[in-house]
């Protein structure tokens, strides 16, 4: 056991979902992009033979980026994820407008990409997704509704209203776990139909 | 009985710590990764039938409490991307910085304060960056020589490894999988971990450090002429045994003599090569400044020189400059020094097609032959200092930051520049002061350094200034002695 306590933040929240994806590969999801503070990860990539990756898009320095892009080839689906540590930051006007802008732009880029390694995925269903931490498990559904309302209010670019929310909660031992909410229903695993 | 060794990788993000563990898996036998509390990676490596290492990745420094004191102390000098920490001995094994892009211009020196922060505590430091980078204009850029020069000098001064490594090649810019840097880095780090825990001999690090120092020397040799007019004692650097000598110096427990490694010592004008001396010319300035005009005069009379005149100008909008002048004026109201006038005016900033210039000298620094010559220029530019009586025998290193935004000089990239250039130009390889280090901030007011009681405020920039500078000259010619806090 580590002798330190942690304070949840956006990095921890996003990483907790990445760990879930890495630990549940049987579900078929893989990480095409993640947006930590630094490092060689400022590219959207896809896995190729021999464990390598191929770049399909590179963000420039000041370009607005999502926080995660998750892809599932079995479900033919892409989640473009916007993350914040807490709900309050996610649903401000400025943040929601930025989220809508980013999701819209990346959706169009992926749908029209001429990259040969991505081309067969260009028709995948793109699902806007929001990720945050919620300390009180009882309020997850309520908070998820708040995100939906904020999106509806600021969705000037008319991205899909069918959002998938990822909520990170803690138990009494400070263990983190992911919950997924889609079309008003909560799931413990990311293994449901995305119709 | 099996021995489990414990190590913590503290990192700016989980990714960096995770990536470092994956890379170490090429040198240690990887057994498994598990996740404590559902998100904290714990890597298990087997060293032998009786020994294993457990590495716990703690991403995002600010998330954790309590921060171990050695880590907290190191972070005051800037955040390295990764710190390897042994909780049992409360010791930092090394710090690592890595960048995805090739830093150009000001950014090239951005991480140098972290390099200095580690080395001042003799914490081995490796800096991995791309040698070839893709610029937004589509062209290829190569890394600056200054981080490598600084790292070699700090290695000698502190007798501790300080290494700059490169990845990528000309056909694969900014690609970690090309070039030798990543492999070389983690080979060295695996050995460093092994030495710390006693399963590798101390002698094993020297050969790889020799390779790494040789890489740095080769890089400086190949790129130096693009950056500076000359590199003193380059012939000594190029000697076949120099990299090995530095490597031995930083790994030996014996007090080896390093005085023979007298490179990177840019001396007074009478010591520089004849052809370089003959080419000393004033570089000029963009925004006129009373002190810079006089220092340019010293260059004209070959009593000072610069190494390049490539400081670019990044014009700012009239609105921004106006707002920054007003903000400086507000800060100036706590001034208690006599005969100081606040004279920043919008009309003094010359126009450009895209805004107003704030750049004064076209150089980031000057190397001035004597303190007396500098003092005469300073008094002439700022008559309020005419009675100043300070005597030094050393020549002067004068660093210039034209920044106007309040507080900007306490952060990136200026603290990095200051760390790099003051170590490179104001100290020799044995750590002796060779020049009086002075910074000139013509657009910043001195009051920003002090609290209401007149004591130095505490921030990273002021810490670095106080440690590496002797004096700083602020707007209006206010001279601050960074060592004792006196304001003149």
Please specify the SSE layout and strand pairing.
The complex is a heterodimer of chains A (195) and B (488).
Chain A: E1 5-6, H1 10-23, E2 29-34, E3 43-47, E4 53-58, E5 68-72, E6 77-86, H2 87-90, H3 93-112, E7 125-133, H4 140-154, E8 164-170, E9 176-182, E10 185-187
Parallel strand pairs in A: 6-7, 7-8
Antiparallel strand pairs in A: 2-5, 3-4, 5-6, 8-9, 9-10
Chain B: E1 3-11, H1 14-24, E2 29-36, E3 40-46, E4 51-59, E5 64-65, H2 69-75, E6 82-86, E7 91-98, H3 112-119, E8 125-130, E9 132-134, E10 140-142, H4 146-158, E11 162-167, H5 181-197, H6 205-227, H7 234-237, H8 242-251, H9 274-278, H10 290-300, E12 304-305, H11 318-332, E13 351-352, E14 355-356, E15 365-368, H12 371-381, E16 396-400, H13 414-426, E17 436-441, H14 460-468, E18 471-474, E19 478-481
Parallel strand pairs in B: 1-4, 7-8, 8-11, 16-17, 17-18
Antiparallel strand pairs in B: 1-6, 2-3, 3-4, 6-7, 9-10, 12-15, 13-14, 15-16, 18-19
Helix pairs in contact in B: 3-4, 3-13, 4-13, 5-6, 6-8, 10-12, 13-14
